[in-house]
Amino acid sequence: MTDLSSTSVAVSLPSSLHSLIEVENAAVVLGGRTIWQNVQLTVQQGEFLAILGPNGAGKSTLLKALLGLLPLAAGTITVLGHPARRGNAAIGYVPQRRHFEADVHVRGRSIVRLGLDGGQWGFPLPFIQRRQARMAAARVQEAIDLVGATAYADRSIGELSGGEQQRLLIAQALITSPQILVLDEPLDSLDLRNQQGVAGVIRQVSRETGAAVLIVAHDINPLLAAVDRVVYVAHGQVEVGTPQAVITTETLSRLYNTPIEVLRARDGCIVVVGQPEEEISYHAHRAR
Amino acid sequence: MLIVRAEMLPFSWNLIMDIQMLLHYHFMQNAYVAGTLVALMAGMMGYFMVLRGQSFAGHSLANVGFVGATGAVLFGISPIIGLFIAGICAALGIHILNLTTRQSRQSDIASGVILSASLASGFLFIHLATAEYAANILNVLFGNVLGISDIDVSIILWSTLLLISVLAVIARPLFFASLDPAVAAARRVPVRLLSFGYLVLLALEVAVAVQVVGVLLIFALLVTPAAIAQHLTSRPMVALVLAIVLALLFMSLGLTIGYITPYPVGFFITTCAFGTYVCVRVGRFISKRLARTRFTVSTETKIGRIS
Ligand SMILES: Nc1ncnc2c1ncn2[C@@H]1O[C@H](COP(=O)(O)OP(=O)(O)O)[C@@H](O)[C@H]1O
Ligand SMILES: [Mg+2]
């Protein structure tokens, strides 16, 4: 409870004072292979970053490095003025999906609650610490309201659709009022309507809470309205800039090392043409 | 045992008399105390077992008790010690085999490997042990609830206290790690340590439970109450309490029916559990069907009214 107040103080600091995340010349080596190197990235307060790139390029690895879950082979990552470390409550994390199987009979509300105190040792005794239990329940409800999951928060999570599960997991990540929200392919394996629904929720959350959002996506189009900058990860390199600057014929052709054409539809949708075979599924709704 | 049974008092419809009569014999008192404690532990551990999708690991650990018990006889150590050593070794084996794989679902393969290896050594141990021991095999497999000594009771009591206190400390992180290992790990929850700790607790529960219900039937007491509870509610605390209550209920029903009939206790425990499970599943199915028909009917009437 106490760190909540300190977070809200930090949120109100002018953004020019410090950036939330600073990545300096970072490199990660996994299993003897350099996933990416020479990564430079600065994230300001309230920024909305989309992380794009083909499968296996190292997008999830980038998020894990920010979360302090992976050691760096070179460079530094600073989060809120400190080296990246595991268990930082200032970062809300939704990992790459995990679907809850149909036989998980635990209500969504309890899953959201895990984000608040799921890691604490000792057994909670709600009938003794009444006030604390009430406050916790209120925060859970607040997070559930924020993502619009009230209608199904008390149903078994295994019975819910992918989009509903995803909303509850975002609520779980939000419950500590993090300054940074890190989402790994939250729109993956959702149908188009749900993609837009969940993307809308994320946009709204970033507006209402002022949290910086780093979101890995396969398709930038549902996010285009919200995205400030794009982080493009491909073939060991990372390119950062506005969508207009990065998703261009020249930059992508250089990253992929093969001719690629970027088209912009009249409604602003981006269509990428001519990607290598195995990465073709990538900008998912080009056919739209 | 048969001699004792011959002079047992008859069962009546006077409940207080019946309870007095049930607890009249010291071996029956021991059976109730030991059975209650074992069921208490089984309810709790079973809840997490079902939650973690580790039923097969639990099944394997229970059956590893077979090698523990036969090995104990062969090497002349106390059965509970033998059971616990075997359980810890198996837990360690399952855990280490799982470390190399990244997926949790792989745990079935590790459990299967450990299970078959231990059953094979148990078979060897029986072969090496004296022939008279062969008669005891049934007790290992199905328990001997009426032959529990005072020392056994106190061992079970201390084990229960230990298990409950450890579980009370780790319950919440274990719940987190069971449902959502990736996020739990990012939150500094020691996911792997917890998963090993859970297996060790399971080994402890199996070690003390084998005397009461045997290696084959302990699994029923672990998995069935928890499975029923999770079908009835999706609130974790309620489900945990319900699993414990059901385990206690099946145990006492089994003991009582087993006492007034000449058939084994383990059979009745398992049958009560299985019967309830089937009823709950059928009940859920019917209520879902009813809800669906009611929904269709109500939409039909609405449509009818509109047109
Ligand atoms: N623990 C690991 N050991 C070795 N290689 C790994 C490990 N984790 C991921 N990799 C490899 O790192 C690369 C990047 O993975 P990832 O960041 O998950 O890609 P994506 O961009 O699809 O999220 C992949 O080629 C993957 O095989
Ligand atoms: Mg990934």
Q: Would you write up a description of this structure?
A:
Chain B: It is found in: Cell membrane; Membrane. Chain B: It is a multi-pass membrane protein. Chain B: One of its GO terms (cellular component) is ATP-binding cassette (ABC) transporter complex. Chain B: It comes from Dictyobacter arantiisoli. Chain A has about 290 residues and is an alpha/beta fold. Chain A is built from eight helices and twelve strands. Chain A has helices at about 1-10, 60-65, 110-115, 130-145, 160-175, 190-210, 245, 250-255, and strands at about 20-30, 35-45, 50, 75-80, 80-85, 90-95, 180-185, 210-215, 230-235, 235-240, 260-265, 270-275. In chain A, the strands form three sheets. Chain A has a six-stranded mixed beta sheet, sandwiched between helices. In chain A, strand 1 (about 20-30) and strand 2 (about 35-45) form a beta hairpin. In chain A, helix 3 crosses helix 4 (about 130-145), helix 3 (about 110-115) runs parallel beside helix 5 and helix 5 (about 160-175) runs parallel beside helix 6. Chain B has one domain: ABC transporter involved in vitamin B12 uptake, BtuC (Orthogonal Bundle), CATH 1.10.3470.10. Chain B contains twelve helices and no strands. In chain B, helix 4 (about 55-75) packs across helix 5. The N and C termini of chain B lie far apart (about 75 Å). The model of chain B is unreliable at about 1-5 (pLDDT under 50). The interface of A and B includes residues 67, 69, 93, 123 and 154 of A. The structure holds adenosine-5'-diphosphate and magnesium ion.
Structure in a nutshell:
Chain B: Belongs to the ABC-3 integral membrane protein family. The complex is a heterodimer of chains A (288) and B (307). Chain A has 288 residues and is α/β, with parallel strands linked by helices.
Determine the mean pLDDT of chain A.
Answer: 85
Radius of gyration of chain A: 19 Å
Number of helices of chain A: 8
Query: Which descriptor suits the 3D outline of chain B?
Result: globular
- Enumerate the distinct ligands: adenosine-5'-diphosphate, magnesium ion
Strand proportion of chain A = 15-25%
Query: What is the structural class of chain A?
Result: alpha/beta
| Oligomeric category | heterodimer
Shape of chain A: globular
Average pLDDT for all residues of chain B: 85
